[in-house]
Amino acid sequence: MKKERRNEFDLIRAVSTVAIVLFHYSFAFIQYGVGGRYIYFMQYANGAWGALFVAVFFMLSGSSLYYNWGDRLTSLKGKGGILDFYKRRWLAIFPMFYIAWFIFYMINAISFGRLWNWGGSKANLLLTFLGMDGYFMYRGLNYYTVGEWFLGAIIILYIMYPLLQLCMRKLPVISTVIVILLFSLNTARRFIPALAVYNEHIVISDNINIITCLMSFWTGMLLAGLGRGIIKRMTVIPAVIITIIVIFVPLPVSMLILNQILALCIYIILSFISVCIDGHRADRSFKVYDSLVIFFSRYSYAIFLLHHQIIQRGMSLFTGREFTYTLSILYFLLNLAGISCAAVILTKVTDAIIGAVTKTTRRITMNTPG
Predict the structure, then answer these.
(1) pTM of this prediction exceeds 0.70
(2) What is the structure's pLDDT at 369?
(3) Using H for helix, E for strand and C for coil, what is the string for 312-365?
């Protein structure tokens, strides 16, 4: 049975996409020594905007996957089976990633004047092949050129997803308790003497630790299980109040915990806004809103892959100069437009290549003697 479209997923994805681009745009001013007055979308009172919207994105990923696949994956093979799930996830991630990576790899190769060795051993290319080069950059230089660290984390979670879905369906309470305990231990591990050896070897940043990512992802799965029943005034009002407090008032609580709480609140608020808009479609037009939301939702992945390269190359032209606040806004809009155009092109090129390969494969299969 075809699922009802959840427009709130598109809004959450679109807002998270633009917010993450704006965060990295703000950071580029510091990274390239550009002065003056400019958009500073870096920190709120208890954490970083980038980490916050990554957590929102993980919640959305868990929620949308469980909503669309929660009653599937009942077999290994066949449509809707585990192998079908992995095939669809691979096609959604890797072809576009490989194409974008190759383009910027060649640009860097021309710039550096050499092909293989600026990122260390050729063995490091295996990390790129697996989509993990951004996630493992903390371990040392490799051939990472496009995307985000959270691409590697989401790939790990996708690999785990069939098991996570089974746990959610069969043991939801026990599984939730285990995930919360793991997250709690990860949050407090630096203060627990018995974990000294673990802390010595697990040096990845706390906010990108797969356990932190799992907490957000699992929360999203729980939200999908609750359905739209949670999207109402009784939940959105406390969510708005908590959001205001966490954004503006420094609190003596771990950033990791507050990040999860704030991400959940933003998820609920954006879902409520989307549902309210849907409820007024009979008497109002939302063409501009729909166009923007659908666009940034559809091309979010391509935007994530490309935005670092475009922002950094553009900002490097202004090293040592100064911006006015108005100019920084206009330049952000110009960057966003450029990233969007590049994302559309990359998506269409990827779709064309996948279509051509699929067509050729079918032709070969049909012409092969049985």
Answers:
(1) yes
(2) 63
(3) HHHHHHHCCCEECHHHHHHHHHHHHHHHHHHHHHHHHHHHHHHHHHHHHHHHHH
